Amino acid sequence: MKQLYIFFPALFFSLFIFSQTQVSISSDSSWATIGERIRIKIIVKTNLKSDNIIAQTGGKKEFEIIHEYELKKSLVDGSTLYEKNIEIAFFKTGDYNIGPVKVKIEMEGETLEERESNTIPIKIKSVLKENDKDINPLKDLVEIKGNPLYVLKYFIIFLFFTAVILFIIYRIKKKKEQPEIPLIPILPPIEEFEKRINSLKGKNFIEDKKIKIFFIALTEIYKTFLTRFYDINAEDLTSYEIIRILKKREEDQSIPENFNLIFTTSDLSKFARFIPGQKDIDDLYIRIFHIIDELKKRTIKEEKDVALRT
Q: Does the predicted model carry a pTM greater than 0.90?
């Protein structure tokens, strides 16, 4: 009888534990190189009557979320099973932990329960091999013979005459009437974006194998456009944060989708030594000019609507 008194409370306690929500995360690899995509799977099993989950990575993130897949929901043995897959990439070497992921269980927009997952250790390696070198060995310092102060007097004389010449030029310019400099009108954001893209295309960086220089210039161009057109501080935002803003603001979801591919190709080429082929570059320009054409059409329509109302 004494054993039964112990057994029944233990059974009740174990059933209570197994009825709770369970959250776990896993990855498709325990190590990766810089810029390489890693797939993270988040599994949530709950007995609560729910219709959605929200998963958030807490704390400081050393990685960027490259892509999020649609949430999968299924029923397994009377429990609701959610599966969420995301792809991330690290751009620094080192040992990191992914997680814990904070998960909210929701029903019709109301939070029923919050849980945290486990963490996953992951090692990020460099794409360089052992014999690769980024910097050539420094040359030995050149030996200076004699007294270096000997040239000081000549340097002082040079500075004196330079100052006299600059002073004379300043006095001459001050006497002359300053011509009025016409103001150069600032182009609208879309026109400036198109003009700078065409200018970049004509510099033949891709043909000259200057891939990284091309994508650094491209990044500066599209971040300036996003800052002006959407009134956001694109320079201080990650690619993932910009895409989230565009998805909320744009009715035409082809625009954030095209920008997402442009961001991904740029980041991989700048940080992971990805070398795109000619087909990738052609596709990049097709997506950029598609964005320009769609936004131009929208702007023209808005201007016509304003003219009709007035």
A: no
Q: Buried b / exposed e across 248-263, counting CB within 10 Å, b at 16+?
A: eebeeeebbebbbebb
**Tokens representing 143?**
């030996």
DSSP state of 135: S
Strand ranges of the sheet holding 120-125, from the earlier edge strand across to the other edge: 31-33, 120-125, 94-98
Q: Which residues pair with 53 in a beta bridge?
A: 105
Mean pLDDT of 190-199: 92
Q: Are strands 38-46 and 22-27 parallel, antiparallel or unpaired?
A: antiparallel
Question: By the 8 A CB rule, do 267 and 254 touch?
Answer: no
**Which of 52, 56, 54, 55 has the alpha carbon at shortest distance from 108?**
52
Cis bond upstream, residue 100 (ω within 30): yes
Terminal Cα distance for the chain, rounded: 91
- More confident position, 186 or 242: 242
